[in-house]
Structures are given as structure tokens and as C-alpha cells.
Amino acid sequence: MSSRAFSRLLVRRSGLSAVVLCAALVAAGGATAQQPPAAQGRPAPGSPPPLVERADTIAVTPVVVPNFWNVERRLERPDAAKLPKELRFVTTDDYPPFNFINSTGALSGFNIDLARAICAELSVTCSFQTASFADVADVVDQGRAEAAIAGLVATPAARATLDFSERYLGTPARFVGRRQETLAKATPEEVASKKVAVVSRTAHEAYLRSFFNEAAIRPYPDLKAAQEAVKAGQVDLLFGDGITLALWLNGTDSGNCCRFVGGPFTESRFFGDGFSVAVKEGNDTLRHAMDFALQRIWEKGVYTDLYLRWFPVGFY
What we know:
The chain contains twelve helices and 13 strands.
């Protein structure tokens, strides 16, 4: 995915909206918002990201599956008579591993599997259409689809025409260090002695300058350059989007150089509230149905299965 495509993630998708990042950057000192670039070394379309066989890997870090649902809250099952018999989703086809065209030409990805699970829970049929990310909100607003599942974030601008389910995935930030890095915790005190790479003029840089300002912060023009710096040992740590970094760590481009250190960091002022399903403004019936289905999917373990399938190296 191109840097431009990824930058749309945290605005309307996020990932990774400019509204969120702009607010974060202004709060941190007025830097110009620019989204992190796309993940490097992502897996080939057609299958979930494969784990790379590495003989020098001594131990596998357990994957932490996030939970955004209160299991003690009991949501009322929606009235099937008030739901459409066919739930039309709109998404994009250029954002692996969330939504993309696989090697057989079929729409695939985490978002697609999650949408199908929602339909199964609500006992309705599913259909999908694709649009450019810039047009996804309009497709729902104009009634050409009932819902959008494309990495959307409930920003104030997006809420002008859409309503949103509770989030189903967060966009945390993480530190990455070389495998021989001895740092166990990523606290401001521990990181103060480290050189930290970050993509310049992003929410991640703004966060570092707000809370890790004693570290030697090294801005880089793009994520690829920052990744190469930590691989080469030119810096001690890299700070960036956890989803992107997890895909990089799991891919061949990382060369098994690195691992997550500390975190995750989930401050919504900087990194957004996470991904939600969007419906037309005022469609409370469908929004509540989405919330019900998502919680049931979590309770049944379906969400965990999907998360582990598509993110074998977790980012929490």
C-alpha cells in the first residue's frame, strides 16, 4: 500500500483521519500532520500473513488479542424484522491484510471475514462492493450500502454523515528494538538514554516529543528509512504504528532483526479511537445490531480466531 493510501487510514479509516493527527500535533507543539507510510514487506495477497520460519528465533512471544467489549453488559438481540435481509457492505480493495483482492480475484481480508461473521450472527446475507476510500462514506450516506467496513474512525468530521459502532480494532503505537536490545520496559525514564527513530511530522513524533522528550529523537522522512536505521543499529528504537510494525516484523523485509519493546500506547488524542463499522446517520437500529453482533462474535471466540489468523504477530 502506498504512503498516500496508508495516510487515509486514520482520517476516515483511521490504517492509519487527518483530523485526529492534526489535533494531536497541534497539542504537541504545532507540527504538521502526516500519516505514517504503509507497512513494508507485507505478505502476498491471497492468504493471511505467514509466519516466517527462523532458525535463530528462540522463543515466540504470545499474541495478545485485544478486547473492546464489556462481557458483563448484555445487549438486546435486534428485531430481525427491522433488519435488512441483505446487508450490503462497502469497503476498499487496496488495504491488505484488512481488505484486498486475493490471488483468486476474490475480496478478502480481516474486515471481510469480520463482516461475514456479523451477517452470520444477525442471520442475514452479506454482499460487498468496493469504492475508493474517498467515496466510502458517500456510498453509505446515499443509501447504496447499509454499512462500511474499511478501517473507518469515528472522527467529528465523519460523524457529520455517519454513525459508528463501537470499535472493533485499535491503532496502538509501539516501540521496536533490535533483538539484542536489553530494554524491558518502554518508560520515559528507560527510553531517555536511547536514540529513537520516528517518521517526521506524524502523530508518533508528536507523542514522543510530548512524553519521551529526553530521548534522542531522530526523525526520518519515511518509514522505510526509519526501519533501515533500526536494522542497521544506527538507532536503538523505532516508534510507530503497531499494526504496520507488526506486519513488518512478520515479513521478510525485517530480516528477523527486531521485536516489540514495551507498550502498547493507545492514547486516542494521538492515535485515534480505532476502527468501527459505519452506518448512515440516524440508523440506530442497525448501529445497535452491529454492536450486538460484534460483542457476540467476541464472546463466541470468533473474533479471536480471526485476529490470530490475520495477525499472527499481534500488535498489542
